[in-house]
């Protein structure tokens, strides 16, 4: 049970029935203060909160929360994937084994390295049987992803797969946004297919290559134009 959510629900109920104040024990005050400090502190505090998250049922099937990896300096590059597969869940890292090798080749083809990117998932826990995440699971992780972006302030995001547009572009489908440039405040967003999808559908390699060339051009405009 999400204790904080239950407390908030009860406070809203008290407000609706006309109560303007209620007594709170010291334990309740400490709990609320801890939640506030975690939310308002730092990237490392956010990581700690994500690792121990139980906001949806996926915490019951995960081995590890895949928080992400890569440089955390602001105004850099970021890759946002979909959700961990079985191997990522086992190793606790994004893009491992065959899928990771393909990502490396995709980036190498446009003279970039994965070490330049902070890499994370839209949904941080694996799903049962590798199914797409349910709307409530996406919603549970949405604040975490948006806060990662807030702290990292990337200049450019490469979003891979069908799930990222649902969060970053308010429910739009990958079919509508693939290969196009969008903005989120001061961040440029670029969407294309996930390497795992490419492995299952090799016929799309050509369109992905065209997308990657567009991404490289966008990268040069943002980072190499001065």
UniProtKB/TrEMBL annotation:
<dbReference type="InterPro" id="IPR005273">
    <property type="entry name" value="Ura-DNA_glyco_family4"/>
</dbReference>
<dbReference type="InterPro" id="IPR036895">
    <property type="entry name" value="Uracil-DNA_glycosylase-like_sf"/>
</dbReference>
<dbReference type="GO" id="GO:0004844">
    <property type="term" value="F:uracil DNA N-glycosylase activity"/>
</dbReference>
<keyword id="KW-0227">DNA damage</keyword>
<dbReference type="GO" id="GO:0006281">
    <property type="term" value="P:DNA repair"/>
</dbReference>
<comment type="similarity">
    <text>Belongs to the uracil-DNA glycosylase (UDG) superfamily. Type 4 (UDGa) family.</text>
</comment>
<keyword id="KW-0408">Iron</keyword>
<keyword id="KW-0004">4Fe-4S</keyword>
<keyword id="KW-0411">Iron-sulfur</keyword>
<dbReference type="InterPro" id="IPR051536">
    <property type="entry name" value="UDG_Type-4/5"/>
</dbReference>
<keyword id="KW-0378">Hydrolase</keyword>
<dbReference type="InterPro" id="IPR005122">
    <property type="entry name" value="Uracil-DNA_glycosylase-like"/>
</dbReference>
<keyword id="KW-0234">DNA repair</keyword>
<dbReference type="GO" id="GO:0051539">
    <property type="term" value="F:4 iron, 4 sulfur cluster binding"/>
</dbReference>
<feature type="domain" description="Uracil-DNA glycosylase-like">
    <location>
        <begin position="67"/>
        <end position="213"/>
    </location>
</feature>
<dbReference type="Pfam" id="PF03167">
    <property type="entry name" value="UDG"/>
</dbReference>
<keyword id="KW-0479">Metal-binding</keyword>
<dbReference type="GO" id="GO:0046872">
    <property type="term" value="F:metal ion binding"/>
</dbReference>
<protein>
    <recommendedName>
        <fullName>Type-4 uracil-DNA glycosylase</fullName>
        <ecNumber>3.2.2.27</ecNumber>
    </recommendedName>
</protein>
